[in-house]
Amino acid sequence: VEPENLVFGGCDLRRATPLENLREFAEANGVPRADAIEALAGDLDAYGASVVPGLLVNVGDAVAAMADWRDTAEQLPAAVDRIRGEIRRFRQTHGLTRVIVVNLASAEPRTEPTEVLMDEDSAGLRRRIESGRAEGLPTSTLYAVAALEEGCPWVNFTASAGADFPAVRALARERRLPTAGRDG
Q1: Contact 140/159 with Cβ under 8 angstroms?
Q2: pTM of this prediction?
Q3: Are 57 and 70 in contact (CB under 8 A)?
Q4: Cis amide linkage into residue 32, ω under 30° from 0
Q5: What angle do CA 39, 40, 41 make, to 5 degrees?
Q6: How far apart are CA 108 and CA 159, in angstroms?
Q7: Cβ-proximal residues to 58 (8 Å cutoff; 6+ apart), any chain
Q8: pLDDT, one tens digit for every residue, the chain (184 residues)
Q9: d(Cα 159, Cα 16) in Å, to the nearest integer?
């Protein structure tokens, strides 16, 4: 695939645009240089138009403290369905034939896997999400479920759990979709 045929989008928990975030980072850290930022401004603005509010479910205190974009009262089934809808909208808006979801989020708190995640069948996981019981379900796993249910391969480039549970791998097999990675 030629780079000019790639389209990027994403989820974030902050209202700031990618360009604003990069400028803030540069001010605090001295890199990149202002001229490099300005050279990327148009691309960052285009990318920012495809950034939507992320999930604020089981993110941990440090990440929740940074969040200023999502209502903390959003219920689990609605949150996962919203992300699924955002994936569909992204595909339709850009006329894409394939969407690959790549997790680049902040590391999430480690939790003991729940029984439903360790099940070799995905039905219990979806029932758990529909019940609204978020405890023990890593945020990255919820994103992986949303991606797979929308027919998208999942790549995890973080140390977070993502699709690294039998129930999620079962969902990937059912959907005939690849999953890859854990910490790049």
Answers
A1: no
A2: 0.89
A3: no
A4: yes
A5: 95
A6: 8
A7: 108, 109, 111, 134, 135, 137, 138, 139, 142
A8: 888 889 999 998 888 889 998 999 999 999 999 999 999 999 999 889 889 888 877 777 887 788 886 565 678 899 999 999 999 999 999 999 999 999 998 878 787 888 999 999 999 999 999 999 888 899 999 999 999 999 999 999 999 999 999 999 999 999 999 999 888 7
A9: 25
